[in-house]
Amino acid sequence: MSPLATRLLIALSACVLLGATCRGQGSRLSDLQPEARQAVEAAAASLPCRCDERQSLSECLQSGPRCAQSERELDLLVDLARNGALGADLVQEAQGYYGSFGEAPRPFDLSRSPCKGPERAPVTVVVFSDFECPACSFARPLLDSLVAPDGKVRLCFRYFPLDSHAHSRQTAQAAEYARLHGRFWEMHDLLFEYPDTLSLDAIVALGAQVGLDAGEVRRAVESDQFLAQVNGSKAEAKGYGVSATPTLFINGRPYPLPLDGRFLARAVEDHLQYAARGGWAPSP
Predict the structure, then answer these.
(1) Least buried of 31, 61, 212, 257, by fewest C-beta within 10 Å?
(2) Helix, strand or coil for residue 115?
(3) Cβ atoms within 10 Å of 59's Cβ, excluding its own
(4) Residue 7 has pLDDT above 70, yes or no
């Protein structure tokens, strides 16, 4: 059989297989538009199965429930397709996500970073952010929601002031002053509430609002007391390829999926499973 015929046969098998999977598991594909459904079927025929990369995802699904991760991999394709990724983009996003697990974790020094959640949490999310960045403001409640009472997630904030934002370094230094006085997260939340109206006077007023000494906040910012630390945070991030905000790392590995609660929750769960199993092992 020619290579082309083999690929067509695999794709056809995927269509039949995924249709059956869809009917058996809550019609995961049935509500997709035809173009999106075809994209998922084609991607499943070309992407490797996480439990056995010698097989495609389609073949892995066909073999039964031995590989629980294959079901999650299919779910990811469906969610990405619903989010607008089709064709080569769908394959590329899925490959980028699963490929990130194979990267060496970045050894971030978080000893002086503001964090919330247990220090020994099995998942640590590090976000490089800018207080004048609209996308960072949008991400704030999504990231906060990850730090649940179950204690599985620790969230740590790192400074990445953008040169395009006039007060990015001032806000970062004010936040660092607040951290040293036990008021970081209160200051963090207020700074994100007013990203379009920040000025030195406004920053100082927000500091006073969270219980800081207004004069000391002003002196710290005007003297660039924490500028070296803020710039150091940015330089470290740039060394790991960060160029925009917000940029997230989960357990030291880059997070490449869309900034959406569904994808963030999925990534946390996948990192928990990956660490517990030591990889994408087949189900026992």
Answers:
(1) 31
(2) strand
(3) 19
(4) no
Spell out the domains of the chain, with CATH numbers in brackets. 3-104 (no CATH), 115-250 (3.40.30.10)
What is the reported pLDDT for 281? 66
Q: How is residue 33 written in tokens?
A: 């538009």
3-class secondary-structure state, position 279 = coil
Instruction: Look at residue 279 in the predicted model and tell me its pLDDT.
Output: 82
Q: pLDDT band for position 283 (50/70/90)?
A: low
CA dist., res. 102 & res. 218, Å (int): 45
3 state DSSP class of 48: strand
Q: What is the pLDDT of residues 106-136, one digit of tens each?
A: 999 999 999 999 999 999 999 999 999 999 9
pTM: predicted TM-score of the whole model, two decimal places:
0.88
Average pLDDT of the segment spanning 238-262: 96
Residues 128, 107, 149, 73: is their CA dihedral positive or negative? positive
Write out pLDDT tens, residues 51-60: 888 899 999 8
The tokens describing 116, both together, are 């919330």
> Residue holding tokens 């969230």?
155
The phi and psi torsions of 95 (rounded to 5 degrees) equal -65, -40
Cα distance between residue 208 and residue 282, in whole Å: 55
Q: Which of 160, 143, 124 is nearest to 238 (CA)?
A: 160
Q: Which residues are CB-neighbours of 96 under 8 A, at least 6 positions away?
A: 256
Amino acid at 179: R
- CB atoms < 10 A from the CB of 63, how many? 14
C-alpha span between 84 and 81 (Å, rounded): 5
DSSP characters over 141-182: HHHHHHS-TT--EEEEEEE---TTSTTHHHHHHHHHHHHHTT
Q: What is the DSSP letter of 50?
A: S
